[in-house]
Design brief:
Number of strands: 11
Pfam families: DUF1731, Epimerase
Largest sheet: 7 strands, parallel
Strand order of the largest sheet: 3-2-1-4-5-7-10
Distance between the termini: 33 Å
CATH class: Alpha Beta
Shape: globular
CATH superfamily: NAD(P)-binding Rossmann-like Domain
Bound molecules: NADP nicotinamide-adenine-dinucleotide phosphate
Order of helices and strands: EHEEHEHEEHEEHEHEHHHEHH
Number of helices: 11
Structural class: alpha/beta
Radius of gyration: 19 Å
Protein name: DUF1731 domain-containing protein
CATH architecture: 3-Layer(aba) Sandwich
Length: about 300
């Protein structure tokens, strides 16, 4: 029997969102996706604003957001604005629809990123760390998270998942680096010593399902694996899973030329992020270490 009636997923057409839709289909009687493009099982952001939440919506998830690392888009003020509004305005639209609903959903889970924590070579961040927003990406994550705030009178449980780099074969970083690694041209970015917070797509989906089903879960969860690795260690694990060398470093300057210095910092810098609250709640990872995650993805 389905656990939930209707589940609504903003950004459910993307890499993470389509995996979430698949995961929720096993536990819900209906999954609806909010998208800018019409299609079966979809509603538009405009429909949501005009008509409010679909009937019997019990779970709402939002992972919508313009791809920051789209190599075809220059890092212009207009594109930066699009990166912000595609996250902040969609989350805000959902929060407003929840506030207006006569029958608010049980739970509202929104995506955020580990970019919430400014890059640092020594600090260790868990969900209780409260660093000030000091760069574009940490400010973006603060605004993204705050845009989903609900009033104290609203009974909906609110959860935020601050995700690390999501590893899966159909999208994200693996799709971008697969061919260079396959050709034996893979390797770390810059020094490779920067931290690389990561999570396997199955664990991220399971974390959303866990948060939806477990009424005790509230507030922020760091969507990262418990094993902290550097960019160099990730490259080594991926190369070894693909039986390829991974010694070819990609110079920082090349990334900066291609993406602009600010955007390149997402790859050339990193933060050490640990999932303290996730483990305290008793969540079990399928892929807690980078070797098993990489092997599963490329085989
Ligand atoms: N992949 C990762 O490693 C990773 C790590 C941490 C956080 N995240 C966050 O997780 C979210 C999903 O990532 P993803 O890898 O699944 O991205 P993706 O494959 O590019 O999917 C993005 C989704 O957002 C929607 N979208 C894109 N531009 C939009 C816009 N301007 N306005 C409204 N909706 C828009 C798209 O929906 P339609 O085109 O159907 O409207 C699509 O479903 C993003 O917010 C990303 O920042 C991802």
């Amino acid at each position: 029997m389905a656990k939930f009636s209707t589940v609504l997923i903003g950004g459910g057409t993307g890499f993470v969102g389509s995996h979430l839709a698949e995961g929720f289909r096993n536990v819900a009687s209906k999954v609806l996706v909010i998208s800018r493009m019409p299609g079966v099982g979809r509603i538009s952001w405009n429909d949501l604003q005009q008509k409010g939440l679909p009937e019997e919506t019990e779970v709402i998830v939002n992972v919508a957001g313009q791809n920051v690392l789209d190599p075809m888009r220059r890092w212009t003020p207009g594109f930066r604005q699009n990166v912000v509004s595609s996250r902040v305005l969609t989350t805000k639209t959902l929060a407003e629809a929840i506030e207006k609903s006569a029958k608010p959903p049980k739970v509202f889970i929104t995506m955020s990123g580990v970019g919430y924590y400014p890059p640092n070579e020594t600090a260790e961040y868990n969900e209780e760390s409260k660093p000030a927003a000091s760069d574009f990406f940490s400010k973006l994550c603060h605004d993204w998270e705050n845009s989903g705030n609900l009033s104290d009178q609203t009974p909906t449980r609110r959860v935020i998942i601050r995700s690390g780099v999501v590893l899966g074969s159909e999208g994200g970083i693996i799709q971008r680096v697969y061919i260079p690694f396959f050709l034996g041209l893979g390797g770390p970015i810059g020094s490779g010593n920067q931290f690389f917070p990561w999570i396997h797509i199955d664990d991220l989906v399971n974390m959303f399902l866990f948060a939806a089903s477990n009424e005790k879960v509230v507030g922020v969860l760091n969507g990262v694996a418990p094993q902290v690795v550097t960019n160099k260690e990730f490259s080594k694990a991926l190369g070894s899973a693909m039986f390829r060398p991974s010694f070819m470093p990609l110079p920082e300057k090349v990334i900066e030329l291609a993406f602009g210095k600010e955007r390149a910092s997402m790859m050339t810098e990193g933060q050490k992020v640990v999932p303290k609250r996730v483990l305290d709640y008793g969540f079990n990872y399928k892929f807690p270490d980078i070797e098993s995650a990489c092997k599963n993805i490329v085989n």
